[in-house]
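hey so i finally got around to running the thing on that chain from the lab meeting. sorry it took forever, my laptop kept dying and i had to restart like 3 times. anyway pasting the input first so we r on the same page abt which one it is
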Amino acid sequence: MDLLKTQIGRLRVIGFIEGVSFLLILFITMPLKYYAEMPGPNKVIGMVHGLLFVLYVLAVVQCKIEYNWPLKKTALALLASIVPFGTFWADAKLFRQV
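ok and heres what got predicted. didnt touch it at all, straight out
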């Protein structure tokens, strides 16, 4: 896959997966945890999401270094990881401009 050959491509893939895991937590596992008293899925997806979040932050830092991103772009990319649908916005507005 050509997307994984560049640092920005890897960031885009990690960002997509991290964004999906965040939405799974918000809209599926959290309601299961609090309304159906099923904490198991939240623990599993939560741990996976935590790992993906760390990978996303590292990938953003690597892109900042490799592509000499300004502080504003780097900050927006990092902020996108804590806002629902944020990584999808970052992919469309920030990462495709490289």
